[in-house]
Each structure stands twice: as structure tokens, then as C-alpha cells.
């Protein structure tokens, strides 16, 4: 059969399983028009960088029309591009260039809430009787005028905001300018699914679904119970946020979502080979919810988990416990892991603050991440080993940081612009005199052009390791089984179609010997780490790894 015809007839529906997805934060990737803010034309220009890494797909954070109160996660038109980022034609060009380079394109759908400037909300809030009066979550106050229940907004304060026209409260899990859509209303479901179809027809290959477990709320508006202090954790909200004091039984995680996700999946399946990854933000039930959403083959293909996005350092025990817990919660499911993104402190700073050799640490972390069972997201700049930027209060943009400053400085420190060329103006990001967030000098010293061609750079190690991974289906789709989980030593096997790849890591600055599991192991090359094995021992220098086939 003709090869071209063959691939057109049978696209790989499973491309997302074990894919490496490169996350682009469009404001900070590349500015093409000199306004100090990144844009779609900039993305197109820089796609060869993504291709040179060997990533399978990009996930582009929101570029839709928005008043930008939450930097695009507050959408006022689901089917258009914000002028700040360009035009719909510019987006078509991103898709065309990505596809030319063999890269899939995933876009970020924010359908739990809209902007308060979305036409739907403007109409909904105009009166209690209008065609969209029930499109958002409205409720009368208690007799004493206070909000209907104790639900909290993640960004601070009550989750209810008062509207003097309707003389009612509306629900917002995030900013007051991000009112929560009422997904219990089938017309709302239809409207958001129409937006999904719109982008599918333009050729996107998949979606990242923002805050997927927030789509439905309890219609009885029951109070969330208090969470015992020992059960609190800061994986999805910083420790200083009282949101962590509640057991979120009623404001999110509602079982009604499962039926909606099936409807959503049916729309995806109208097109060939489309994938979705749902962002499940929950500190108590995250893996359980991920299991529900990715089971049965009729909902999400993947869920994006927060287990490795928390402040707690990445230890061998955390890796093993998380993989085992996911396996139990989601035997048929599939996770998507990340160590960094646009919401958390970059992991080289979050976990490596006291590490002397940050580059070695960054390289090792990349290998741990990319050998997990699951798909993987790499956040722009991670491949350069970038640290968290220190942003002065007067430069802060993120309302979350402004609210909780200085105990929590918000998310600007991981959102500063990409650094391409240390000798160029604004490190090659922009021709503007001022960029929307400042570019730290130490980032500039790690720019792409500085690292490129230097075999021992973090960038070249990412490229090398991604290439190495591509040649080993066990690292992409394999099962995972743990052999050694000690304080700093981690050994696991990934197995697929009769082949096993053993992965051994030393997560410390001291040399480490680990027992070599029984078997006939053939050392693999081309991964860039200096571990060796002899006499039943795996010998690992500081921050190093060893890989073998068996
Ligand atoms: C997600 C996004 C975050 C945004 C929030 C509200 O967690 O990643 O950036 O602020 O949802 O949409």
C-alpha cells in the first residue's frame, strides 16, 4: 500500500500515550511586533526550537480574546484570538508550521469559567429573566445578606461575588472577574462544545482542559466541611491560602462531570486522533478523580496531575508512592506529569535551592521526568535549566501574588520571557524597551544560543535524552515496576512488548552504589549520564543515572 495513503487512512490514535508535550506560555515565548508581549507569529518563528528538542506536541496556554485579568485564563470570546496575540490567520499559521515540523498542537480550553466581559455573562447578569439568566451559578443571599455558603475562591476570599443588578451572588472559583459557568445547564454544555468543534475544524490535535474538575458544583450549595489540619497540603494552593482548610466535597469534583466528559469525548471522536488532557486540581482526591476521568476509554485520554508540582522535594519515595497510587486509582488510566508550569515555582529553584551543581540537578530531573510512566509536559525554559525569577513587588502582574504577597509571591517568577540570545536586545525575546515582565540577567546567561552546541549544557542534554527516549518504546508506553527506593537511590524498570529498560538514578550530590537487579542487562548508551555497572552493582556519580536493556 502507498505509504502516504496508509498514514492518511490510519492516523495514530494513540500518539498522546507517552508523548512529550512542550508547554508554550504565549505572552513570554517570542514577541514578533515589539510590544513587549509574546504572540502567535513569535510562536511560529520559534517552532524549530521545539522541533530541535524532539517534543511530540505543544500545548499553548490561552491566546483567546480576553481582558487578561488572569492572563488569558479569563476568556471573553472562545472562538477568536486576542489582538495582543495576533489573528486567527496567525493561529492557522502556527498549526501549519507545527504540522510541517511533525509537531501536534494542543490548545488550552478554559470552560469552567469565562471572563465577566464575555457576552454570555453580560447578558446573564443583566436581569433575572433573560435567555442566559441560568448560564452562570447565581444564588440569593442568606437572609442576613451574606453569601449562600462557605465556598472559597482559590485566589482569596469568598467564592461568591455580589451583583447589585440581580441582587444575587454569582460563583467564581478564581477571580471575581472569572464567573463560573453553570454546566448543569445543557445549553451551556452545547455552547462550549461548539467552541471545541470550532478549533477542531481549524486543525488542532488536542486540548488541555483547564480546571476540569471544577466544571460542576453541588446544586444544593452545601457547605464544604473543614479539613483536619493534618490532611491539609499545599500541592494545588500555597500553604498560606485558607482554601486548603476545606474538604472540597461540594464546590468541585461532582460526579455529574463524568456524563459531560463523555459528551466532550464524543465530539473529539468525530475527528481522527484527537487527544485531551484534563487538569485535575485537588489536593485530597486528585489521583482518584484522574482515575475516574481517564477510565473506560470514553472520557479523557489523560489527566494532568499535581503530585510533582508541590513544594515538597522530589524523593525516590515520592516517585514510587505516586506511581503506585496512580496505578491503584486508575488501573486503566493514563497520567500526564510535569515538574514545572506557568503556575508553580520552577523546579530547579523549588527543589534545588541548596544544590551547588544546578545544571547537573536539572539534567537528572529531566531524566526522572521523562522516564515516568505517563505522558510528560516540559515547560518553556525548563530545557535551559532556568531558575525562578525574583520579581519586585512593583513589577508584579499576577493578582494571586498581589493578594498573598509576600508569603506567596504569585506566579510571575516562572512566567518571565524566554531567553534566546544573550547578545540580542531583551535576550532575543522582544525589540521593546520594556517587556511585560523583566528578564533576569542570570536567565540571559543561559539563553538558547549560549547553550547550543555545548555538549555539557542542559539544553543539549534535553535534546540528547529526548532522542534517546524516542528510540525506546518501553520508556514511552511501558509499565513501571520499582526495584530500589532508598533515601537517594531510585531504580525502576519500564516494560513494553517484551522489552524492559532499567532506569537507575542517584538523586544526591554524593556518589552512590545501588544493587543491580537480577537479569541479563545490556547497558544503553546515548543518554548522557556517567553511571556504570559491574559486579552486581550500579555505580552512580553525583546526580547521575544509568540505563540498561533486558
Ligand atoms: C488553571 C491555570 C491557571 C489559572 C486557573 C484559572 O489552574 O493553570 O493559570 O489561573 O486555572 O483558570
How are the SSEs placed, and which strands pair?
Blueprint: H1 3-9, E1 20-24, H2 40-53, E2 57-60, E3 64-65, E4 77-81, H3 88-100, E5 104-109, H4 119-124, E6 138-139, E7 160-163, E8 168-171, H5 186-201, E9 206-209, H6 256-268, E10 275-279, H7 286-294, E11 302-304, H8 316-329, E12 335-338, H9 347-350, H10 358-370, E13 375-379, H11 399-404, H12 441-444, H13 448-451, H14 458-470, H15 473-477, E14 479-485, E15 489-496, E16 499-506, E17 512-515, E18 522-523, E19 532-534, E20 537-540, E21 545-549
Parallel strand pairs: 1-2, 1-13, 2-5, 5-9, 9-10, 10-11, 11-12, 12-13
Antiparallel strand pairs: 3-4, 6-8, 7-8, 14-15, 15-16, 16-21, 17-20, 18-21, 19-20
The protein binds alpha-D-glucopyranose.
Residues 70, 73, 110, 174, 210-211, 279, 281, 342-343 line the site of alpha-D-glucopyranose (GLC).
Amino acid at each position: 500500500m502507498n505509504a502516504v495513503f496508509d498514514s492518511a487512512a490510519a492516523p495514530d490514535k494513540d500518539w498522546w500515550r507517552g508523548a512529550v508535550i512542550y508547554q508554550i506560555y504565549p505572552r513570554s515565548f517570542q514577541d514578533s511586533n515589539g510590544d513587549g508581549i509574546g504572540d502567535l507569529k513569535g510562536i511560529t518563528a520559534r517552532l524549530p526550537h521545539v522541533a530541535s528538542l524532539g517534543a511530540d506536541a505543544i500545548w499553548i496556554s490561552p491566546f483567546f480574546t480576553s481582558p487578561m485579568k488572569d492572563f488569558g485564563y479569563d476568556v471573553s470570546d472562545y472562538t477568536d484570538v486576542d489582538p495582543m496575540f495576533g489573528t486567527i490567520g496567525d493561529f492557522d499559521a502556527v498549526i501549519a508550521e507545527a504540522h510541517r515540523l511533525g509537531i501536534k498542537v494542543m490548545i488550552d480550553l478554559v470552560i469552567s469559567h469565562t471572563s465577566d466581559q464575555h457576552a454570555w455573562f453580560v447578558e446573564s447578569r443583566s436581569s433575572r429573566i433573560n435567555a442566559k439568566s441560568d448560564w452562570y451559578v447565581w444564588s440569593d443571599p442568606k437572609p442576613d445578606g451574606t453569601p449562600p455558603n462557605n465556598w472559597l475562591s482559590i485566589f482569596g476570599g469568598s467564592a461568591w461575588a455580589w451583583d447589585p443588578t440581580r441582587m444575587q451572588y454569582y460563583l467564581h472559583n478564581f477571580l471575581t472577574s472569572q464567573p463560573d459557568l453553570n454546566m448543569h445547564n445543557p445549553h451551556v454544555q452545547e455552547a462550549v462544545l461548539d467552541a471545541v468543534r470550532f478549533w477542531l475544524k481549524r486543525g488542532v490535535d488536542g486540548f488541555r482542559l483547564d480546571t476540569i474538575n471544577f466544571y460542576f458544583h453541588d446544586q444544593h450549595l452545601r457547605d464544604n466541611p473543614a479539613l483536619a489540619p493534618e490532611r491539609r497540603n499545599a500541592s494545588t494552593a500555597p500553604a498560606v491560602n485558607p482554601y486548603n482548610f476545606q474538604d472540597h466535597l461540594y464546590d468541585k469534583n461532582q460526579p455529574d462531570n463524568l456524563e459531560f466528559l463523555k459528551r466532550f469525548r464524543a465530539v473529539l471522536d468525530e475527528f481522527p486522533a484527537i487527544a485531551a488532557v484534563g487538569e485535575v486540581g485537588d489536593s485530597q482526591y486528585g489521583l482518584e478523580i484522574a482515575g475516574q476521568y481517564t477510565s473506560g476509554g470514553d472520557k479523557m485520554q489523560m489527566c494532568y496531575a499535581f503530585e510533582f508540582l508541590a513544594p515538597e522535594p522530589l524523593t525516590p519515595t515520592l516517585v514510587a508512592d505516586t506511581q503506585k497510587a496512580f496505578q491503584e486509582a486508575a488501573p486503566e488510566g493514563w497520567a500526564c506529569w510535569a515538574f514545572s508550569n506557568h503556575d508553580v515555582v520552577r523546579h530547579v529553584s523549588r527543589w534545588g535551592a541548596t544544590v551547588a551543581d544546578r545544571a547537573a540537578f536539572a539534567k537528572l530531573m529531566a531524566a526522572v521526568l521523562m522516564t515516568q510512566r505517563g505522558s510528560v509536559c516540559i515547560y518553556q525554559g525548563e530545557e535551559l535549566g532556568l531558575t525562578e525569577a525574583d520579581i519586585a513587588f512593583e513589577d508584579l502582574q499576577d493578582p494571586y501574588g498581589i493578594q498573598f504577597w509576600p508569603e506567596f509571591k504569585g506566579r510571575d517568577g516562572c512566567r518571565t520571557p524566554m531567553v534566546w540570545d544573550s547578545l540580542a536586545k531583551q535576550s532575543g525575546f522582544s525589540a521593546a524597551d520594556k517587556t511585560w515582565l523583566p528578564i533576569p540577567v542570570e536567565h540571559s546567561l543561559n539563553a538558547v544560543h549560549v547553550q547550543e552546541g555545548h555538549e555539557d549544557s542542559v539544553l543539549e542534554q534535553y535534546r540528547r535524552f529526548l532522542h534517546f527516549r524516542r528510540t525506546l518504546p518501553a520508556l514511552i508506553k511501558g509499565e513501571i515496576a520499582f526495584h530500589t527506593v532508598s533515601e537517594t537511590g531510585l531504580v525502576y524498570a519500564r516494560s513494553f512488548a517484551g522489552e524492559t529498560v532499567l532506569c537507575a538514578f542517584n538523586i544526591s550530590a554524593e556518589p552512590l552504589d545501588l544493587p543491580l537487579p537480577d537479569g541479563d542487562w545490556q547497558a544503553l548508551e546515548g543518554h548522557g549520564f556517567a553511571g556504570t555497572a559491574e559486579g552486581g552493582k550500579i555505580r552512580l556519580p553525583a546526580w547521575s543515572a544509568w540505563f540498561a536493556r533486558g
